[in-house]
Design goal:
The chain is of the alpha/beta class. About 40% of the residues lie in helices and about 20% in strands.
Length: about 500
């Protein structure tokens, strides 16, 4: 039974046990007014008790969108509060993540209708994220030679065909028919090689988004295929790869982190197999939808298996059965954490001398509701437009100029400073194609400067990116409505897209 909240609240008195607790302790009375805010709560939040205790507007000062008030009310109602996180904004703008728990229903505190204990987990979360990234980079680093091999193969015939094409164009003119057939074949093979390299780079890019935590609907098979492509050389010399992939539903996850899970399981399977027995070794990848509609993926090997004593610890941090200096002992622990975070589970079965099977089960994802589609307006007849290109790679600018110059007037600049000078020198541009990652003044900063000068010019920016490598750039691209274009791109597609963008901007 909770004591009468109108009683004098001894818990708030200096020197009380709550004041010396190493965790934040907060409590409210029957009217939802804060009555306890101990020293650790002050340290974490940056808010002194004097401005909070007894203040009906206290929760508005914490900058947590009312989460703390909601949790106090939840604890008061008897609902469990266990390791629920909220983000407090300190007066200096710093954000702190606090994990709150309470047993207010079972443990009454005199004078309080509800209470919470909170642990500041900000640094712990940051360390865990660094460990996740370190493990991801270790996995990709271990495959560096194999990835280089996969890239070098298409690069070999791409570059060779370009050399042959250059010689053919510079040498004596062959018969027209032979010239057409031979040159088209050279160009087609070179393009196929470039597209293979592009796909490998895109697969690698999936693992490079270190702090992108946004969840979305992920194609599980596509994610698996990307990981198998990265592992192709490693697996080819170790074992036969057997695929048994049946349809699985998309899952709500993060493709980078889910790919890290699959890549880690494939690396473990490969390392469980002895070298020199690739015809006997086998890695099996299976996928299906279970009776509950969940996506299930299994990675199995017929290697040495895991001893029963070790099997209980495979998901423990820093536990490894590999020799000292080989592996971090974090891979499976990180995989377990990632899968659990997606609402799924990862399990293992193993038998010494017969191999191991890791199973990942994930709930089917649901698409987020989106506003009804708006029928596109009838495109006005295209007219010649003024297009500004901002890219520090001069050759990229040349390619864009060649692609667009037949239909539009194109100005190419290699820096934000040059772009601003071009904008000041003449009539407004109808479209601005701008690289995100520019030296000195980035595309993000250029957009901010244009927004200050002319919102119309800022909205006409289309951002090109070969990879946004900073958290700021990724956040910027996620928030702005401006169109974007991923590098590399097909010149014919660029011409078509420019026409669409110009129609949207109604030039």
């Amino acid at each position: 039974m909770v004591a009468d909240p109108n009683l004098a609240i001894e818990a708030a008195a200096p020197g009380h046990l709550f004041e010396e607790m190493p965790v934040a302790f907060v409590g409210s009375d029957g009217d939802g007014i804060l009555r306890v805010w101990n020293h650790e709560a002050e340290r974490v939040s940056g808010h002194a008790r004097a401005e909070l205790l007894g203040n009906p507007c206290a929760f508005e000062l914490l900058g947590d969108d009312g989460e703390l008030a909601r949790l106090l009310e939840q604890a008061r109602s008897g609902a469990p509060v266990r390791d629920v996180r909220s983000t407090l904004r300190r007066p200096d703008g710093e954000l702190r993540v606090v994990s709150w728990s309470s047993r207010a229903r079972e443990v009454a505190v005199p004078g309080l209708a509800s209470w919470l204990m909170g642990v500041d987990v900000t640094e712990r979360d940051q360390i865990q994220e660094r460990l996740v990234l370190a493990e991801r980079m270790a996995s990709v680093g271990a495959l560096a030679a194999g990835v280089a091999h996969e890239i070098n193969n298409p690069l070999t015939y791409l570059l060779a065909n370009l050399v042959l094409l250059d010689r053919a164009l510079a040498g004596p003119t062959p018969p027209a028919t032979a010239r057409k057939l031979d040159l088209r074949e050279l160009v087609a093979e070179a393009r196929e090689g470039a597209e293979r390299v592009t796909q490998i780079v895109r697969d690698l890019h999936m693992f490079a988004r270190a702090d992108d935590d946004r969840d979305q609907l992920v194609d599980v098979q596509r994610c698996l295929e990307a990981c198998l492509q990265m592992m192709a050389n490693e697996l080819r010399h170790r074992a036969r790869v057997v695929r048994d992939l049946r349809p699985v539903p998309p899952v709500r996850a993060n493709d980078s982190r889910l790919g890290q899970v699959f890549l880690n399981l494939l690396v473990n399977a490969a390392h469980a197999l002895p070298e020199g027995r690739e015809t006997e070794n086998e890695v099996r990848i299976a996928g299906w939808t279970d009776e509950q509609g969940r996506a299930v993926v299994e990675v199995s090997d017929n290697g040495s298996g895991i001893a029963p004593a070790a099997l209980r610890h495979v998901f423990d941090p820093f536990f490894t059965t590999r020799p000292v200096g080989v592996g971090t002992g974090l891979g499976l622990a990180v995989a377990h954490r990632i899968v659990s975070g997606f609402g799924g589970e990862i399990t293992v079965t193993s038998e010494e001398g017969r191999g191991s099977t890791f199973r990942v089960t994930l709930p089917a994802g649901r698409a987020c509701s989106s506003p009804p589609a708006i029928a596109p307006a009838t495109r006005a007849p295209a007219r010649r437009a003024r297009v500004l290109v901002v890219d520090d790679e001069e050759l990229v600018g040349r390619v864009i100029r060649r692609a667009l110059t037949a239909a539009h007037d194109v100005t190419v600049t290699t820096s934000a400073a040059q772009a601003l000078a071009a904008l000041d020198a003449g009539p407004p541009f109808d479209l601005i194609l701008c690289d995100v990652m520019l030296p000195e003044t980035s595309g993000v900063d250029l957009h901010a400067r244009l927004a200050e000068r002319s919102t119309d010019q800022a909205r006409r920016m289309v951002f090109m990116s070969g990879g946004a490598f900073t958290a700021r750039a990724r956040k910027f691209l996620a928030e702005i409505p401006n169109p974007r274009l991923e590098k590399p791109f097909d010149p014919a597609l660029l011409v078509e897209l420019v026409g669409e963008w110009l129609s949207v901007f109604s030039i």
